């Protein structure tokens, strides 16, 4: 039986221990979070993805069939339009806007300094 474990820290700082048991022979799957079973599935012998929320974060446990077995991964889905992801994208857009303003301000400041230096030379 294959087993994988992950430690996940939420954006608010809470710790979660997520684990997966998967039998490559029967395909039985058990996913748990902090010792509580969240998902049971049977006959999983191909690639499959399980999605669930921890707080506001959408997580995905991926079982990926490979030539000689399976790969297991835990990923944060930051593409789906959850309230948290919407806030993140809004903050990223604001940050990009502020970076543009800072860059423009720096360019203007450099031009002013160059003009002052040129005037002082004359």
What's the topology here?
Elements: E1 2-9, E2 15-22, E3 29-33, E4 36-41, E5 48-54, E6 57-66, E7 69-76, H1 83-121
Antiparallel strand pairs: 1-2, 2-3, 3-4, 5-6, 6-7
Would you give an account of this structure?
- The protein has 122 residues and is α+β, with helices and mostly antiparallel strands.
- 6% of the residues are buried.
- It has two domains: 2-76, Beta Barrel (Lipocalin), CATH 2.40.128.180; 79-122.
- The protein has one helix and seven strands, in the order βββββββα.
- A four-stranded antiparallel β-sheet has the order 1-2-3-4, with no helix packed on it. Strands 5-6-7 form a three-stranded antiparallel β-sheet, with no helix packed on it.
Main sheet characteristics: 4 strands, antiparallel
| Structural class determined from secondary elements | alpha+beta
Order of helices and strands: EEEEEEEH
* Shape by Cα distribution: elongated
Spatial extent as radius of gyration: 25 Å
